[in-house]
């Protein structure tokens, strides 16, 4: 049966009703039109561009359920909770759920009126999901973090390659919407090919953030520079660091110097992280010193600065993190603190980032033994995983082990998740009539069952997250008493109770192989390493460049041409020369050509360049100051290689 057409006016009404906006941003409307007209679409939207609107609004206007695929379980939970709070019925499936929970969720999607089903990518290829997905009336498939499908990308996940196989089991007219914030032209084409787009269709805005001034500061004493900077600028911001330990150290240094600061990393308890983020978001903390775990779900528009204490390992990461500044369109600053020792540390980390192949195989065998997975079994099995216990038991180095697991994931043998906080869940497995009879016959449980039913809804149709501490407080009883009630009701087959836990997960996407059958080809290993080194080189080039506009360098990386920004540190220094970009570039090109053929002294070089003498002298002086040309002992000039 043909689907009912959807108009952009319907979508605007939905936007206003649920999100309070009266109009879309320009690219949002283009994407929504493309999707509602049934076209496969790849949307490139910068961080903070409102990606979720582009699938949530049209999905509400279209008939059926929108399938959203995302690798970020915390983001999945956040969005599902947000949608449900707006009375938009939404569900999720991820690897921390039991088979029973997944089964009930899929049944509800098939027979219930649910608008969104969020799924983690490794669940797509499981027999349970594939057996039911074709029976769900899907309106749209939205793929977040779509760059993960490309082996050319910086965060490749083999499970993403299975997404295209959904086309075999769902209606042929269901469009795919792929979303990403950062992708090179090579990755863009790879995404569309791997998702089997029926027709190439890319919609994107310029990556340019004209209100952000990009600065690189060559400093050894970063603490002093940071304090000086924070004393001279207003507003709040983020300081990114590369380790959990440093996040705390830098925050404590700032606090000791009367800066209202806090720290944030993935190892903190969820409730504490939420409190820290809320404190910063509401302005109680001026500065948050954080690892890259800080960023997901940030919608604070008035961030005036993002400072990187440590150099990131790719332009993609730097662009995404620095892009959290100035989302309100007002002037903001993205500052990278850099010293020669940073470069050494960055390249030294390669040894840990790419462990020897034999080390990767050692970790695989240890993992299988730790989880008691026999050879030939384990496919699609999910295991709780304690990294600290694992490395301690097998006496493995932590960083090498983590990166070995990442490589095994990249090769498609396992999926490895960061620590997930899964709350306790309850589902009534008896109907209301049978429950009433049970309450009459078991008076001692009656009050507790009424407490459950008053506190939570939906427990007869699905698993519902509960909080034992909250229930204990309401009933003025101990948490242990609540737990015992739940366990007893579960043993009597009145409810199904799954106690909460906080753990990382390992999912075996293939059966356990013998060591000799574990294929990690040297060619593929070196290919991945070479691509990573190439990204490092580009990042270091950005940090060390002394003659190219920062914004131009960033945009060029993503295949976008632009004029120099006029506000970065390079442009500001050039502006002081009182030369236009055109004049500077013409003189620069002539000098490069001359020095490629001969080595004149400064006076000779001035005469060889065809431009006005006073302007040529300014450019030569600038190039000498920035170490782009060098003088030997006889004053002869050479272009520095």
Kindly describe this structure.
This protein has 641 residues and is of the alpha/beta class. The chain folds into five domains: 8-204, Rossmann fold, CATH 3.40.50; 212-347, P-loop containing nucleotide triphosphate hydrolases (Rossmann fold); 349-422 and 504-533, Orthogonal Bundle (Arc Repressor Mutant, subunit A); 424-499; 577-639, Arc Repressor Mutant, subunit A. Helix content is 44%, strand content 16%. It is built from 26 helices and 21 strands. The strands form five sheets. It has a seven-stranded parallel sheet with strand order 3-4-2-5-6-1-7, sandwiched between helices. A six-stranded parallel sheet has the order 8-13-12-9-11-10. The longest helix is centred in the last third of the chain and has 23 residues, at 522-544.
